[in-house]
Predict the 3D structure of the following.
Amino acid sequence: MRTKKFLLANAWCRFWAGYLFILAIFTRRFGEKMVWAWHHCELRMIASCICFLRFSKDEFNSRLASLLEEKKLEMKDSSKEKEFEKIPQNSQDTLNSLLNIDCIEEKSAKDIAFIWKKYFENKDSVYAIIPAEEYRELSVKTKEFPLFVYPLPRGEGYEFFVQLWNSEVCHFTPLSSYQIHKENAPVCLSLKHYTELAADKDIVLMVGTPDMNILSVQESQLLALQVKLYYGIHSALKFNHVRVFNNSPSTFDYRALITEFENYKRDVKSKQESS
């Protein structure tokens, strides 16, 4: 028998489904901002399930699966995937906006990595030097599955953050913000990957500056790390969570991501204690 809370949640999601239909009409007229609104409201329904409902694991997973299936059908039918690629990237579109490429042409990859690290190590930024081979695999996976969610420890629990890839930029926003800000949900971190040196130096440079009102640098590093864990060249079985989330949502369990994170923390602690 359905509980009162489940029926209330069902009505809530039906309301947003109607809202999405209206947004679908207005998207063509108002362009990119409404495309953002579309994605925000889709995931806002998922956020409602995570943050508002408190029914059993099976009920949660069933409802989440239904919402993910609706999302996939809507995107497929209305070509939202192509429109989503129009989302603006950050203003620093080229590596030359940060480094004088002419001055580093003769430098080795090791020297460039040292310069990149020195430039950002005292700034409130997340940065990395990624081997080109590793980034190529990452790029293939993120083009196939640009959408995923990650847990971050907050207090005694976890908060989920949504990942949205757009070309070489990986955007993050709090899942809970969809409930509050609708289409204006803030992008709290954008990780920009510069591929200009991939061919000659075999490296890709990455940097992102978090909104410090939402994310600390350490939390931003944890998000960037989880991208590597789930999409990287050594992601192995973890990438199956991404596949399941996108292809078989009926079997997706968000709690498994928390378990993976807890296991990672234990592994790191164990290595630190043994060293």
In short: The CA atoms of residues 59 and 98 lie 49 Å apart.
